[in-house]
Design a protein that fits this description.
InterPro entries: TadE-like_dom. Keywords: Membrane, Transmembrane, Transmembrane helix. By secondary structure, the chain is of the alpha+beta class. It contains 4 helices and 6 strands; from the N terminus they run ααααββββββ.
């Protein structure tokens, strides 16, 4: 029975070249598998982190937390303020905080209390982020549903991604959250 050191020595002294050929055949698919797994995993992680950031900000808006001071007294939260806060929540790893703040698109809209609003524009199409779908719609009052949506382009390091749209070599992460405005609403501007 050969010991481990004698097996390693026999592979190292193999003059036929079969080991080198086998290694060169197997290293390419192995490295593709490793790199593809890392790229896909990183993109999925970024999508989960982005979704958690949007959900966290929506929860703070629901709880009437003092986040912004540039809206109206009835609803002090603006798309500009919320985009800054979403990017500050936690690192997204794929883009810097400055890039996130400059490229993120946030949409705030109100829906009917029964949820029967039929026309909510798509955030993303085959060509990329639809900028016309993002804006700010006020009219917050008790028992109205508020929807906060966000989209962020990130570098495409993977053939597969959590979102199905690629534009200009980038993938687009999307997230949304909805809540019903409470009866005891007390939004006040921050000084």
């Amino acid at each position: 029975m050969k010991t481990a050191s004698s097996k390693i020595r026999s592979i190292a002294t193999d003059i036929r070249g079969a080991t080198a050929v086998e290694f060169s055949i197997l290293i390419v698919p192995f490295m593709l598998m490793i790199m593809g797994g890392l790229g896909t995993g990183t993109l999925y992680w970024a999508n989960v982190a982005f979704d958690a950031n949007v959900e966290s900000i929506a929860k703070k808006v629901y709880e009437e937390a003092a986040l912004c001071s540039d809206g109206t007294p009835a609803f002090p939260y603006t798309t500009n303020c919320l985009s800054q806060k979403i990017c500050e929540q936690s690192g997204l790893l794929l883009v810097s905080q400055a890039t996130c703040k400059s490229q993120i698109r946030v949409d705030i809209r109100t829906l009917k209390a029964d949820g029967s609003d039929p026309a909510i524009p798509q955030m993303v199409s085959a060509t990329g982020i639809q900028n016309s779908s993002f804006g700010q719609q006020f009219g917050v009052k008790p028992n109205v549903i508020v929807m906060i949506r966000a989209a962020l382009p990130v570098p495409n390091w993977s053939l597969w991604s959590p979102q199905n749209t690629a534009a200009g070599g980038q993938r687009i992460l999307t997230a949304s959250s909805m809540f019903r405005v409470r009866e005891q609403v007390n939004y006040t501007p921050v000084n």
